[in-house]
What does this fold into?
Amino acid sequence: MLDTLEPLLPQPLARIVADLPQAVRGGLEEIRVREGRPLELVFGRTYAFATSRGAVTGDPGAAYAPTRDVCAKLLDLLTNHSVYSFEEELKRGYITVAGGHRVGLAGRTVLEHGKVKLVRDVAGFSLRIAREVIGCASDVLPFLIDERAGTVHHTLVVSPPQQGKTTLIRDLARLVSAGAWPSPHRFGGRKVGIVDERSEIAACVKGVPRFDLGPRTDVLDGCPKAEGMMMLIRSMSPDVLVVDEIGKEEDALAVEEALHAGIRIIASAHGRDVDDVSRRPALRRLFDGRLFGRIVLLRREASGTAAEAAVFDSAGLRVDRQTAFRAGGGRPP
It folds into this structure.
């Protein structure tokens, strides 16, 4: 997916990224650009710096340091030469660009009535590389199937940041939409609705997804999750709703509404484990009611190149192995 990001980089940065060793380019997860400070790379579980010639080094003093002009040009390219048209995104502190790449921003905030109006004098960028991994959910899907209903269980995917939650739920949406159920199941495809608040699941450009989400999937792009779920229920009658990173009170209420409407939910949430997520006030009621029939915990493997998944039922018992144990080392959800 670097090919969709490189045109948005000013020449010095684009040249450095193009000259990186292929092993680094292939596993690149994040590029951190900070004005006057070393250019940082994240790949696998490695943090390193890049020189002006595209070499990787552990010495920050040998690394390329982007200038103010380079950072200003980067912001100009990311906002398609119209910073003012991205005021809403700047207020949230990030921009999602074509290809689904998410760019975090740091700089001086401008306040209005005590709240952040926008980020000005942007001097720091975190470019997170979006990757489509077709088939990555195939080994997980068999443990999410509700055989009596002929569809998936209500499912929550939990992990710390950058462990593959969005990649996994994207592929789950594709499989469910296409009816690519594991043998012997032959349920057929299901109508899938995706609320893509940060444009990371579908990577829509002018409303059209750039990732493969299956043939029966509708996407509401750039819409707040709670409002978007209700809109899709009313307008597109999905069988399955997919949302990323729930956590607010209004998100939990919308999930409950969808569940009571007979719609299956596939959602994700940040957390180290089930206990961590279930203690969050906004989500506690969902866990206390055991509304999620399946909970998937993602952990990055020691190599840093992939994540491994463990699947639990609503009682906290592991369902993807014969030996069951409690998730999170504490009380079940």
